[in-house]
Amino acid sequence: MSLKAILPSTPPRGEFPCATSPTKPERHPDILHALINTYNLPEPVAITILKAVYAAQATLGPKETQTIPPSEIFPNYIAVESRGFHIYAPNTSQGGNGSVFVGPFIATMRMQMGDDLFSPSKPQNIARKVSHRPQKNGYSPIKKNVSKLIEAVSPSKKGLIAPIYSASTDKKGIRHMMMPAYPRSFANIKWAEVENPVHYLLSKVGTVCHALAGLHKLGLVHRDVKEGNVMDDERCKLIDFDTLAHTFQEVGFTTGTVDHLNPRSFGNAENTLFYQRERQGLQRRCDDMFALYHMGLNMTLRLCSELIPPSDQETHQLIAELMKPKIIKPPQNYPTFNTSELRDIGMRYPHRAHFYSRNDSRKIPERIAIFPDVVMYRELLSRITAKLPLSKAEATHLLSFGSFCAKQKFKSDAERSKADSAHTELTVMLDSLKTSCSASSRKRGASSEPNAEVQKRQRKATSLPHEFDENTQIALPEILTV
What we know:
Layout: H1 28-39, H2 43-57, E1 66-68, E2 77-81, E3 84-88, E4 93-94, E5 98-107, E6 111-113, E7 116-118, E8 124-131, H3 141-144, H4 146-151, H5 155-158, E9 166-169, E10 175-180, H6 197-217, E11 220-221, E12 230-231, E13 237-238, E14 245-246, H7 269-278, H8 288-307, H9 313-323, E15 326-328, H10 339-348, E16 353-359, E17 364-371, H11 374-385, H12 392-409, H13 419-436, H14 452-462
Antiparallel strand pairs: 1-2, 2-3, 3-5, 4-5, 5-8, 6-7, 8-10, 9-10, 11-14, 12-13, 15-17, 16-17
Helix pairs in contact: 6-8, 6-13, 7-10, 8-9, 8-12, 9-11, 11-12, 12-13
């Protein structure tokens, strides 16, 4: 279905077929008013849009969606569902499994999704994830029941997991999932604007651990833990659960999530790269905590990059050494490495993380990325944090956190700290930071204490839940230090 240009002699609304919502006809005036006000539309245009929406609604079941594409009279997509319609612009945020759109949802009847109430008179911004490909065989039982699984998470962790409002499918088999829209994700935090950034970082990563602990206790693995899948509001929310799987399935990481950067996953250094070539296209078993510690390192480096003055190029170069791998390509005019070259590179970097890459579909030659090891992370982070415009206590705790993440990332999967233990460790570290420095200890030119309202907001935004499951009541005996 598409919207057609409005004729000069547009008839009155009462003469349109499907002129009122098939769900709640009496709410048509509220729906029309909401659409006109949201987009500042002439009434004939709004009526034409609603005519198409109502006609689509009349054919839809409770788990079905029909999308009206942009047209010459309205430049946005309209995803129509049985109880309302979602309007969003073509620009999007793309992931490995789908695209995410944000825009107003106008309910055609009073309804509740999750804990939120929706009314025809009050459009609300929501997010919609649309799969890239049709779900030919349907979703697995775990994905069909994802909302019920989230509801099963213990109350202390429920507030840390974003709800899914609804899931539906269009006639082409494309999957649609509606969920709340959040102001920002971990990927776009402006660290220079954050009060007490080290406290904020530790508390936020701690809450992600707390959320993962709830999923892992249910025997589930998220498979796509990264900055873009953690929404940041008063209590950060873990999102994107269409990749969930049971731990007994021994599934790999989802497309786009960091994979096999741990050299201890591949045996001895000599055969690491050779083994990676042989297993190209295969994945080792997913470990959410490996991805979480990788995310913690990335966030530490982003924080440092934003707080270090641009004039300090020497320190920014150190940050770049940790963020950007050393790329090794085959000898000139050769698309691949031979076996002896792969083994030689592995021997030259026995303690560094390797990543082998080749894309046959695009005829891209082989390449090898060599990442820092734990010792290099620790040494360079020590030099970087010393240059931050922070108090000594804050810099010390940031270094402890970064070193902790590096150490855990490079452990074997069996030895790596699990979500509950990591949450406890970060809580201890955070409590130590609280006692070591006050909210005004940050030395970035602040001339006075934050006012009472700012302090209240900071405490609310950075508070870390202390409710643990029974098996995590024992606090760590010591605070992590470098």
